[in-house]
Each structure stands twice: as C-alpha cells, then as structure tokens.
Amino acid sequence: MTVNITLLAVMGALFAVGVYLILERSLTRVMLGLMLLTNGANILVLSTGGAAGLAPLFNKDIRPEAYNDPLPQALILTSIVISFAVTAFMLGIIYRSWVLGRQDEVQDDIEDRRVANQPSFDAEDDAEMPAETTEFIRAEAEEAPGTLRAKGEE
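The structure assignment produced for this chain is given below.
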C-alpha cells in the first residue's frame, strides 16, 4: 500500500486547524473546528482504506485481492451523517446564544474563577471524611463484610 503524502498533509492541516479552533471561546469557531476535525477524520479513514480497486461485485474470474473494501466508505458515509447532525445542533446552540445574549462567546463562570483561585488540593487533608458527612454507614457484622447501607434503613 502506498501512502499519499498530499492526503496526509491535508489531513494534518485539518486536524491542526480544527484543534486550534476548538480551543477558542467563540461558538462559531468551535463549530468550524468540529467540521474541520470530522473532515480530517474522513480523510484518515479514506487513506486507511487502501488503494482503489474494483467494485465489490463477485466474479469467479477475478482474484479477491483486486476488490475494494466497502467498509471504509460506509464508515465515512456514517461519519458525514453524524457530523451533519452535530453541525445542526451547534448551529442551534449558536443561534440560541445569539438570541439570548447577543454574543457568541462563552463567558467565564464566577464559581469557576473562585474554585481556580483556591489553594491546591491537599490529598492528606482531604483523604478522611467525617462520618457525619456521609449518608452511608457500615453494615452490621452479620451482613456481608464491606456492605454499605443508607442511614435509617433497618
């Protein structure tokens, strides 16, 4: 199987630009990034399908290696349908965001900023949980070891 360098370069460019666009805060750019990623994945599946061959119709006179595998083409067709649905969903989200806020950019959440500014997680301090903060208690000795049941269950 020969590798088509042009397809690999186009696929690499589509993946690179798609990932860059997904990391943006604008929903329109995120949608464009998803579209580029799905097109790059389609080219990837197409290139792994192998060289072009005969149509997958059976003929006793032709050796089986000459036929083309239809599975990658079916996977690409399925991917196109799924990417169309995701694009339509993203367009709906973008439209709703524009109608409600007249902006297409994802805003920072105040709670996320508060959590990000807290000191880092300390595994030793947070490892033990006080018994009164959980709604589960250890089962009695007659039950199976390690069994938990909710408080108040008899």
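Interim note for the steering committee: The CA atoms of residues 43 and 62 lie 29 Å apart. The domain at 5-53+67-107 is CATH 1.10.287.3510 (Helix Hairpins).
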